[in-house]
Design goal:
Layout: E1 3-9, H1 18-28, H2 31-34, E2 40-44, H3 58-70, E3 74-78, H4 91-100, H5 105-108, E4 123-127, E5 135-139, H6 140-144, E6 147-153, E7 155-157, E8 161-163, H7 165-170, H8 176-183, E9 189-190, H9 200-204, E10 212-213, E11 216-217, H10 229-233, E12 239-240, H11 247-262, E13 269-275, E14 297-301, H12 304-317, H13 336-340, H14 347-355, E15 363-367
Parallel strand pairs: 1-15, 2-3, 2-6, 6-13
Antiparallel strand pairs: 1-14, 4-5, 7-8, 9-12, 10-11, 13-14
Helix pairs in contact: 1-3, 8-11, 11-14
This protein binds iron/sulfur cluster (2 copies).
């Protein structure tokens, strides 16, 4: 028996606008049974990189906040630091960027709290029974929260074909160490030409893994535990992740991380996917290319696998937009994700998440 999802298309009129539809979707999915009076409810979303504009509009997030508050919860918005040394590599810059993108208290009616501390290191080791991983490093505030509401912008992704609820959980709820574990099997690397020998990385490394050789930092692969702290510490941006993990393995590890993120939240999770601004790539870029399909709608479910499967099916059933990054599959039923990223087998993440027991690829979609 498949999971149930609820879907609202983008049509709106004087009888019901999109905000009212969001509320009805959440009520249909049983938000009142998911959060209890006084629950600290983490709304996990992607705040968007500076220059990007495809992320979910803050005014929609406010409606989600208000519905949770109506059900008695105390919602807060949360996101995690990035692995790469960009605008959102630590909490202060990330929160500043979020506020500039419109996620200010006055708009969203909830505080912003990074889930993995000020430098992406505040995490809890969660035991899982994965095919690849037995321990995952999840942002402490995700683990601590009483309920988890993952609000995901459903779009294409260069590494996983598409990014939705599973990516928001697996990659988005992990610490920097966790992101590194998913993306790389080796220690980060110092670009010798850029390193000026300042020693900041050596001070940051708690594992004595960075000797200075001839005035340049070198990372000892034997001593490095992959915490990624040195990447943030380097003022020159000379230390970088070696993105050497294959797409298939990233997806499997991501699904296992997703299982870790929800492991202590039985009956306390809700997934809300916005199939809007379906851009060809991640919201981590400082730009957003034209959407490959028109806006489709909003899905809500208690099952993160079912909701991503349903959204993938809805995108593939749509007519693809001309003059976009979509190179093939424009016809209804054509594979839009392969049409943008032909080499990525996006179904791996769904398959593996189902194997991990966090949801079902079979679903029933109830249209409001
Ligand atoms: S990743 Fe962590 S352990 Fe490895 S060198 Fe950098 S700071 Fe040290
Ligand atoms: S922090 Fe960066 S610039 Fe300074 S020594 Fe380390 S790698 Fe070189």
């Amino acid at each position: 028996m498949g999971a149930t999802g609820f879907f609202a298309d983008m049509r709106a009129g004087y009888k019901e606008n999109l905000f009212a539809k969001i509320a009805r979707l959440m009520q249909s999915a049983g938000v009142g049974n998911i959060v209890s009076e006084g629950d600290l409810a983490a709304i996990k979303l992607h705040f968007g990189e500076r220059g990007n504009h495809a992320f979910i509009r803050p005014i929609f997030i406010r409606r989600i906040v208000d519905e949770l508050a109506k059900a008695g919860a105390k919602p807060f918005l949360t996101d995690s630091s990035t692995l790469y040394p960009g605008e959102r590599k630590e909490a202060v810059s990330a929160l500043r960027c979020a506020i500039e993108n419109g996620f200010a208290y006055a708009v969203v009616n909830a505080p912003l709290i990074m889930c993995d501390g000020i430098k992406g290191q505040n995490a809890v080791n969660v035991r899982i029974d994965g095919e690849i991983l037995k321990n995952v490093s999840i942002g402490a505030e995700i683990v601590e929260a009483d309920a988890l509401i993952a609000v995901s912008h459903f779009k294409c992704h260069e590494l996983t074909g598409f990014g939705g609820a599973l990516k928001n959980l697996g990659m988005g709820c992990s610490s920097r160490k966790g992101k590194m574990q998913q993306h790389s099997t080796v220690a980060p690397k110092v670009a010798e030409k850029i390193c000026n020998g300042c020693g900041a990385c050596i001070k940051a490394c708690a594992h004595n893994a960075i000797p200075m050789v001839d005035g340049k930092a070198h990372i000892s692969v034997e001593a490095c535990v992959g915490c990624s702290r040195c990447i943030t510490a380097c003022p020159q941006k000379a230390i970088n992740v070696q993105w050497n993990e294959s797409s298939a393995l990233v997806m499997k590890k991501m699904a296992e991380y997703a299982a870790g993120a929800v492991s202590n939240k039985s009956g306390k999770t809700l997934f809300i996917n916005f199939i809007t601004q379906v851009s060809p790539a991640c919201d981590c870029y400082g730009h957003a290319d034209a959407p490959i399909v028109n806006d489709i709608g909003i899905c809500v479910s208690t099952d993160p696998v079912a909701i991503d499967q349903a959204c993938a099916d809805l995108v593939n059933a749509a007519v693809g937009n001309q003059h976009t990054a979509l190179a093939s599959g424009h016809e209804p039923g054509g594979d839009k994700f392969r049409g943008v990223h032909p080499e990525i087998d996006w179904e791996i993440q769904l398959d593996h998440a189902e194997k991990m027991g966090i949801g079902s690829r079979e679903y029933e979609l109830v249209k409001l």
